[in-house]
Amino acid sequence: MEPRELETLLNKVGGKFKLVTLYQKRMRELQRGLPKLVLSDTNNLWDVVSKEINDSKVDLIMGEEAEQMRKELAARESEELAEAEKAEQSKLPSKASEVAK
């Protein structure tokens, strides 16, 4: 990364710690399968996150707001998991119908 680009990112985010934290969190999200927020020909996550930060597509949220968002995300993921398990259970044949055959 060029020094000028690094300086731009540092100024946009507000410091080294925040920039490193934002990179780490966003890269983890991309690895988990969340979609890219910018058009990019590369699969290099570093380049994708750099472009997302430059285009103001991502931001680091901290404090109470971040905690609230984490709780909402965890609740949503739990609901999705429960729905997926319920759908999987409905696909399995019941023991009573197996005996009848």
Brief description of this entry?
With 101 residues, this protein is mostly helical. It has helices at 3-13, 16-31, 45-54, 64-91, 95-100. It has 2 domains: 1-60, no CATH class; 62-101.
Q: How would you describe this structure to a colleague?
A:
There is one protein chain. The chain has 101 residues and is mostly helical. The chain has 2 domains: 1-60, no CATH class; 62-101. It contains 5 helices and no strands. It has helices at 3-13, 16-31, 45-54, 64-91, 95-100. The model has no long low-confidence stretch (mean pLDDT 87).
What's the number of domains?
A: 2
Strand composition percent: under 5%
Largest sheet: none
N- and C-termini, Cα separation: 66 Å
Low-confidence runs? none
Spatial shape: elongated
> How many beta-strand segments?
0
Kindly name the structural category: mainly alpha
Mean pLDDT: 87
Note the run of SSEs as H and E: HHHHH
State the share of residues found in helices, binned by percent. over 70%
Number of helices: 5
**Rg, Å, rounded:** 21 Å
Keywords:
101 residues; mainly alpha; 2 domains; 5 helices
Helix-strand blueprint:
Blueprint: H1 3-13, H2 16-31, H3 45-54, H4 64-91, H5 95-100
